[in-house]
């Protein structure tokens, strides 16, 4: 550090040392800089780790054909001409039919999305058919059920007519999809089934909806009845009056578990023809 030199006269020179910064102040500044550096590094590493492990939040609308499918004949592999055993398609026998399956989680907007599909006169989405345990008890029962649906021999309130152009259903990930993912993926590729992944970006709101729906199952707030899907503003407001208690200790781990499940599902069905949609995006633009 520089020193101050004071000349009183030509015979006398006084050298004054520069003022020194107190050692305590230096240590405080050093510690503060180190703490800030460690914090910034930890935040950066956490973001990098999260983005590398869970990429689902960056996905919006994706269509990825299977690499095993001949792209020149892709149109042929996804168009079918089923021959039902329970009725005759008559003059519509030569009308092509497409197969699809909505893969989702409870309280992610799948019911509303399925209503959109069924509003088309020639599209049939047959609901949550694998909610019945016997239909998913093993891969054989799953395959038999799928064959029946895609052969147009499965009848529900959503069933249309002999001229149906697309047929499918919604399938929750906790209803045998993850346990038998390899066999189901092979079936989708073999039969040309298109998978529609429907997720919800706001996982906390989904959790609240799950808790509220579970409570209403027992309390039956709507005039003594339980409805998983409401159809009016009044019904929605009645259910919204219930404020569930959330376990803050388990909150982060529960939300991460949901994210991991969705990520695994995308990995399992990466080789199938599929798209990924989000409930929030559809609400903003249903025509997407």
Helix and strand run: EEHEHEHEHEHHEHHHEH
Strand order of the largest sheet: 3-8-7-4-6-5
How many structural domains can be distinguished in the coordinates? Answer: 2
| Rounded mean pLDDT score | 83
Give the CATH topology of the largest domain: Rossmann fold
The largest sheet is: 6 strands, mixed
The structure class reads alpha/beta
Based on CA atoms alone, the radius of gyration comes out at 31 Å
Shape: elongated
Which CATH class of the largest domain? Alpha Beta
Strand content: 5-15%
CATH architecture of the largest domain: 3-Layer(aba) Sandwich
Q: Give me the number of helical elements.
A: 10
N- to C-terminal separation? 68 Å
Write a structural description.
The chain is an alpha/beta fold. It folds into 2 domains: 49 residues; 224 residues, Rossmann fold (3-Layer(aba) Sandwich). It is 43% helix and 15% strand. It is built from 10 helices and 8 strands. The strands form 2 sheets. Strands 3-8-7-4-6-5 form a 6-stranded mixed β-sheet, with helices on both faces. β5, α4 and β6 form a beta-alpha-beta unit. The chain is elongated.
């Amino acid at each position: 550090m520089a020193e101050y030199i004071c000349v009183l006269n030509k015979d006398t020179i006084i050298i004054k040392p520069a003022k020194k910064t107190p050692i305590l102040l230096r240590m405080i500044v050093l510690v503060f800089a180190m703490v800030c550096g460690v914090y910034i590094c930890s935040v950066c590493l956490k973001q990098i780790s999260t983005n590398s492990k869970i990429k689902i939040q960056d996905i919006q609308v994706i269509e990825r054909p299977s690499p095993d499918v001949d792209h020149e004949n892709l149109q042929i592999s996804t168009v079918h001409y089923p021959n039902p055993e329970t009725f005759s398609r008559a003059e519509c026998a030569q009308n092509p039919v497409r197969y699809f399956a909505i893969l989702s989680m409870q309280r992610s907007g799948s019911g509303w999305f399925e209503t959109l599909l069924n509003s088309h006169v020639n599209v049939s989405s047959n609901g949550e058919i694998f909610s019945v345990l016997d239909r998913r008890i093993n891969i054989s029962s799953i395959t038999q059920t799928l064959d029946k649906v895609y052969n147009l021999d499965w009848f529900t309130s959503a069933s249309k007519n002999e001229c149906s152009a697309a047929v499918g259903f919604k399938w929750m990930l906790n209803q045998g999809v993850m346990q038998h993912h390899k066999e189901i993926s092979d079936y989708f590729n073999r039969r040309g089934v298109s998978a529609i992944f429907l997720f919800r970006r706001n996982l906390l709101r989904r959790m609240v909806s799950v808790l509220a729906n579970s409570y209403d199952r027992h309390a039956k707030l709507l005039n003594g009845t339980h409805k998983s899907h409401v159809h009016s503003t009044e019904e929605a407001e009645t259910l919204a009056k219930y404020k569930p208690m959330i376990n803050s200790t388990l909150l982060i781990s529960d939300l991460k578990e949901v994210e991991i499940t969705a990520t695994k599902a995308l990995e399992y069905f990466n080789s199938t023809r599929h798209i990924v949609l989000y409930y929030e995006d559809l609400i903003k633009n249903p025509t997407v």
